[in-house]
């Protein structure tokens, strides 16, 4: 995409245009000032700094001084550090993920890991979410140059959902250009139209617009207005309150090997009905929560839930999804989400999904998906494909 097109589509007077090896990202002057402020918030004094063996830097920050507490609606928020309330909900939670031992960050107790970011990370993430938003505009008014956003997912849109779970098989798809994204996610939203469409999504993705590399990262995204003004990936903006000293958002993850060793991790997102906050557990560890305040108190339950693969590309051809192979290759060849469950009563038990849920595939010549199959450990959904001209 050229500079002219970007100026045209955002129609703002002052643009800061960042041109680097990976392309062009732009934000307005006002946004630039906002990001300066955000960067200050993110750079809290560290008790300890950890450089991982995959060369990422995490600052261990006092749990009670973490950046999210700078959110204007969290001024008097006291970080919740006990999890006793969930013992009932979590009782039958399955196992840990495969192949991810040693992927913790291990900050000292009482501190939480914050991925070190530079201003350019914030600029790119901001510009990317605006570009991403454009795909949604496409649905109402088709634009010839709108970016492409395709998925192969299993969707539940007719229930009130208080929790979702799944075990996500991880791959590292090879993108065709650094402005593409490919990943696997669990997504939930209020399903309202704007301005109060709240969304939480968690998964893995190769996402150079946000992480500036071609590796797979664990990510968590939220917004309270469908991406218009609020929300971000991980903790690039205040919002998600981290509890775990070792499970870091934005962490690089190894991918599975096609027909070889498999890597997966277990995600559980659920509403604590006592506090009203939405919790994120990964591999049985409480990573943290989205306080109800950040959703303006209107994220009561989810009405739109889905599990599966997603790609984003500003143009054709499109990148691979999942392992890059179709669902017919089954576990080991195709990417999966297994152990799919949801919670359809407040504070109720997690139950297996309804196997009659519908798979939605946007571009069947590029990506495919199977109906959920019972592999003995709950329901498994297989999806993915090579991409191309979609
Ligand atoms: C990531 O992959 C793309 C496409 O193959 C390449 O153009 C880009 O230089 C790579 N980026 C990094 C940081 O290695």
Description of the molecule:
Pfam families: Neprosin, Neprosin_AP. Keywords: Signal. It comes from Vitis rotundifolia (Muscadine grape). This is Neprosin PEP catalytic domain-containing protein. With 390 residues, the protein is α+β, with helices and mostly antiparallel strands. The chain contains five helices and 23 strands. Mean pLDDT is 86; it is low at 1-23, 91-95 and 137-142. Strands 7, 12, 14, 15, 16, 18, 19, 21, 22 and 23 form a ten-stranded antiparallel β-sheet that branches. The protein has one domain. The radius of gyration is 20 Å and the shape is globular. Bound molecules: 2-acetamido-2-deoxy-beta-D-glucopyranose. Residues 175, 177-178, 213-214 line the site of 2-acetamido-2-deoxy-beta-D-glucopyranose (NAG).
Entry summary:
The chain is of the alpha+beta class and 390 residues long. Helices cover 13% and strands 33% of the residues.
Describe the structure using short key phrases:
390 residues; alpha+beta; 10-stranded antiparallel sheet; 8-stranded antiparallel sheet; 5 helices; 33% strand; disordered N terminus; binds 2-acetamido-2-deoxy-beta-D-glucopyranose; Neprosin_propep; Neprosin PEP catalytic domain-containing protein; Glutamic_endopeptidase
